[in-house]
Write a structure and sequence with these properties.
The chain is an all-alpha fold. It contains 2 helices and no strands. The radius of gyration is 30 Å and the shape is rod-shaped.
């Protein structure tokens, strides 16, 4: 049995979500039509088709842009973390020099 790793930053998982979501709009529309949420006759079929089209559009917009948006936030957070580490690691009081001096042999020793 293969394991599936879900990561909010990978496009592959969001593509799977989008495909499943678009496929689920058809049964949802059929269920709502059978429960009487739409009008009777051709007007009801038009309403059901609008429902399916809008559902597919929403799932496509959310599913295909979510990985891009979350990846942008992760990159921004990573940059802020790196900047925070640099400010904490900078010498403040009597710390090591920022650029260490090259090693010089003691007087009387050969290189």
């Amino acid at each position: 049995m293969s394991a599936v790793r879900l990561s909010p930053l990978r496009n592959k998982g969001w593509l799977r979500f989008t495909m499943v979501g678009t496929a689920l709009t058809l049964p949802a529309a059929a269920l709502e039509h059978s429960l009487g949420y739409f009008s009777d006759g051709t007007q009801g079929l038009a309403q059901a088709s609008e429902f399916v089209g809008a559902g597919i559009a929403i799932v496509l917009i959310v599913g295909l842009s979510a990985a891009w948006v979350l990846n942008g936030f992760a990159v921004k957070q990573q940059r802020e973390d790196e900047e925070g580490e640099e400010s904490h690691s900078s010498p403040s009081r009597g710390g090591a020099p920022a650029h260490p001096q090259p090693h010089r042999p003691a007087p009387g020793q050969k290189r």
